[in-house]
Amino acid sequence: MRITVYLGSNEGKNPVYAEAAKKLGTFIGTSGLGLVYGGSNVGLMGILAGAALESGAEVIGVEPRFFVESVPQLPGLSKLIVTPDMQTRKKKLIELGDAFIAFPGGTGTLEEISEVISSNSIGIMEKPYVFYSLGGYYKDLGRFFDHAAAEGFIAEEKRRNIRFASSLGEIREALGL
């Protein structure tokens, strides 16, 4: 099983994010899972992928050509897939993943996991996903989804499928690992 993880190319201000990225990468590798991610060697991406590689995971990076030309890639990747653009990258990240984690990140992370949520919601795919709400990072987003459901914009059964986890144990449970 391959887990696609969406996360920032920055480390964030709190060192807890880097520590948690390393633990998540180690968890993926020691659980016999594979990692699919954005391909970079910088920020949380590099920390996650490096820990997964060190723990024996297959690690597949998917990166658009313009990033390959300007951002260093992690040495030793199992495979680096270079795409012509971001749209193709997003499709490939979904295609290669059996389950998805939105780690703390910015607008790119939110955009990528939103496509997974929408695809599940309209029945294009049925793959588990979870927001890793480390330290409550995604609590306000959870409130948004609750509000959208209360206002009738998200069906209650579909809202229940949008899961949040605050630990690796909860991630394992949410993804059915």
Provide the descriptors you would attach to this structure in a database record.
about 180 residues; alpha/beta; 7-stranded parallel beta sheet; 7 strands; about 45% helix
Describe the structure.
The structure is a single chain. By secondary structure, this protein is an alpha/beta fold. The chain has 8 helices and 7 strands. The chain has a 7-stranded parallel β-sheet with strand order 4-3-2-1-5-6-7, with helices on both faces. Helix 5 links the parallel strand 5 and strand 6. Helix 1 packs parallel to helix 2.
C-alpha geometry: globular
Low-confidence stretches: none
Report the strand count: 7
Count of separate DSSP helical elements: 8
Structural class category? alpha/beta
Helix and strand element order: EHEHEHEHEHEHHEH
Query: What level of helicity do the residues show?
Result: 40-55%
For the largest beta-sheet, the strand count, sense and barrel status come to: 7 strands, parallel
Distance between the amino and carboxyl termini:
9 Å
Oligomer: single chain
Strand content: 15-25%
What is the averaged pLDDT score? 94
User: Taking Cα atoms only, what radius of gyration do you get, to the nearest Å?
Assistant: 15 Å
Q: Which strands sit side by side, in order, in the main sheet? A: 4-3-2-1-5-6-7
